[in-house]
Amino acid sequence: MSAQPPAPRAVLDGIPAYVPKPPQPPAAGTSYRLFLNENPCPPLPSALATISWAASRTNLYPGIFPDQLTDALARKLDVPHAHVVTGPGSVGIYQQIGQAMLSPGDEVVYAWPSFEAFPIVVRMAGAVPVEVPLTGETHDLDAMAAALTPRTTMVLLCEPNNPTGTAVGAAELKRFLDRVPSHVLVVLDEAYFEFYRGPDRPDGVDLHRDRPNLVVLRTFSKAYGLAGLRVGYGVAHPRIAEAMRKCAVPCGVSRIAEQAALAALNAEDELLEQVGRIIAERERLREALGRQGWSVPSSETNFLWMPLGDDSDRVAAALEQRGLLVRTFSGTGLRITVGSPEANDLLISTLADLRSGR
Ligand SMILES: Cc1ncc(COP(=O)(O)O)c(C=O)c1O
Question: Where do the Aminotransferase class I/classII large domain residues begin and end (predicted)?
Answer without folding.
Answer: 37-349
